[in-house]
Batch of 3 targets.
Target 1
Amino acid sequence: MNTQWSPTDLGVSPGTPKSFHLKIHLKSHMCSFRIQLYTVPWIGSTADHNGLDPPPQQIVIIMEKVKVKLCLCGEGAVGKTSLIARYVHDVFDDKYLITLGTKVTKKEMSFNHPDDGTPVHITCMIWDVVGQQAYRSFMPNFYKNASGLIMVFDLTRRETFTALEDWRKFVWENSGDVPAIVLANKTDLKSERTVFEDEIKSYCDSYGMDYLLTSAKTGKNVNTAFEHIGKIISRNL
Ligand SMILES: Nc1nc2c(ncn2[C@@H]2O[C@H](COP(=O)(O)OP(=O)(O)OP(=O)(O)O)[C@@H](O)[C@H]2O)c(=O)[nH]1
Ligand SMILES: [Mg+2]
């Protein structure tokens, strides 16, 4: 592209970065980019800028694909880390290893846009956090700027379902009304189930949230769940 712009044409003051969003509909898919414009002093010799005085400013354009922040919440040992591991690496481990602090996993997501069906590609940063209540006071900022939330409970432990409301309040108080879905996990443990679908539906309906019955162990509905929240996020990009 040979177009030449001066900093003023672009509304950029020298030295001040200006950033904005650009949605590009390429031939077959949509990519969302964050663009940053910087002006920097001319580095070449005087001859390079035809003897102009003062030397022109150079404009540097930095384009990077938008990263969305997807957070998980829910009580300890409900399967948050296992769901991420199943989705990102397609693995499952029976051993329980508490998540200490936070862990962020990057995943490129591709799906069709829920409104117009065009293929969408986003970079998703998946934030996993310890579910044990004792650690909650350390993480009020964890959910800041989240684009989406996955609330997880364990179908075999009723108290993890009732605790979802506390989690919802905690997250929404700290980061606003983040679009959320509920995952009823460990559906493979059929005989140990203590929470049933009508209660889950009634809870989710009261906040306009969708829910899915999942199993990190068998993989049931795991990809569908992440793709579903990805689609909800893409509507807000
Ligand atoms: N049967 C069965 N076990 C599961 C499932 N998902 C997770 N588990 C097991 O449940 C235990 C806890 O799983 P984690 O993924 O570590 O739970 P977590 O929610 O990340 O726990 P914290 O990090 O403490 O918040 C582990 O032993 C997992 O193997 C599932 O879908 N079915
Ligand atoms: Mg964990």
Target 2
Amino acid sequence: MAGERSIVLAMVMALCFCTSSTNTTTTNGGWSAAHATFYDGACGYENLFDQGYGLETTALSTALFNDGKTCGACYEIKCYSTQWCRRGSIHVTATNFCPPNYSKPHDNWCNPPQQHFDLSQSMFQRIAIYRAGIVPVIYRRIPCIKNGGMMFEIKGNPYWILVLVYNVGGVGDVTDVKIKGSSSSDWIQMSRNWGQNWQTDAHLVGQSLSFQVTTSDGKMVESDNVAPANWNFGGVYEGNNFH
Ligand SMILES: *[C@@H]1O[C@H](CO)[C@@H](O)[C@H](O)[C@H]1NC(C)=O
């Protein structure tokens, strides 16, 4: 799908970093009590800065997210046809899900069938004036330009290996992962657990690991023995990449 221009109109909204103007309880030294939260990324990516995505990320509405299959896809987004638009476009990677709210009667941008990008405020402000809040956009899939190789973070336990695949170039969205331990010549089919976390119950501790990763355009990249025989849970290993 990369490079194919979509003419679908979508909406973009800045994440709200609003401060409440209602009265707050002032405690010692002028500090006020409030709440903050950390949204655990629905794609499985963890620290977006450490993992090379930076602020150039977007959360996708239900219609675009496709149960996590679109995680890792890259988009070029432009504000479209309002007075609030700035010139130019942004390039972002899909790293999260914008959850629907079916009990909300209005402004439910992340509900199906709406196509919506939830951007960080700084990315939003590159394409539109902040106070617009939400603007129509046009977008297209673009190739993902990533530095270095695909990264494989190995998690789980000796009976259940979970591999997070990130920093994927090319079209970016992984559709299939196979793993192979050095003591066999058979590739083992992994299944998607959630987002871009892939799992197998094969017992591969003590073997060096190879991966075959296929993306939505049907291209496959093989990375042989990326994790050495003494790989460990929590370890991150770098393979080859799509170009
Ligand atoms: C969903 O929308 C309703 C109605 O606007 C609101 O009360 C509720 O807090 C929303 N739920 C979430 C999880 O945002």
Target 3
Amino acid sequence: MENALEVVRQLLLGECICDAFEDALVEASAATKCSSFVLREPLAIVAVSHPALLHRNCRRHSVSELATAKTLRAIAATLKPTKLRDALLKHAQDEYRHARIFRGLARYLGKLTEQTDVTDYQWILDNDAYFVAHYNGDVTNFICDLFAGEFRTYRFLTTYVAALSDKTGNYAPKLRNAFIAVLDDEHRHLAYTAHYLNDWMRSGIQLKDSLVRGFRAYDQNSWIEVSATAEFFCKPLVASLVGHLADGLHQEATSMSLWRS
Ligand SMILES: [Fe+2]
Ligand SMILES: [Fe+2]
């Protein structure tokens, strides 16, 4: 998996990356290299073999994309008419479309597995609404955060597409094609945010700390995904252990005449 600097080099082909941006990207990559990053590929390999887990993940991604779309539209509304505002509004439209794509995939996988995830993801929308309500008007820091989030999505989708390429079965090509379509948009989002960060840092705006903070925050957030995957596999085991425990207690209680009427 490429680091952030390699990815930006490919995205900004022909555009000179300034020293400050290069330095910030190296530090941001180093700050997240040894944490949840190392689990991305194995997690994707596990997930693509379990449609019920994919169903849950797609439901969650659908809400995340919707939250991002709403945030982008709200922040764009605070800006004067500029190219950046237009780009953020276009970006918001893409994220609304991604929310619909993931929602459609979640429905399809739900029918396929005859399972319905009922997890309440309202907290994702609440978090973003809180962020917008407390936004301090610093759009340069917002773009740092956005770039870090897009980079995380890029990594997640790239590992999923690779894992699905090795997979046979009826749902794999459908998911792979949908993920590739979303990935194309995420490339564009990374490219334009990288372009702005490069320009700003070249002009002397100090954004390294903000970028590193963004990468760290999204990396920590990724542990929620790790935890959700562990929970998915643990739940039946815990339920069966609780069942055994209850049986054991019942037998013990019966032998002690405690449950007799
Ligand atoms: Fe997206
Ligand atoms: Fe995006």
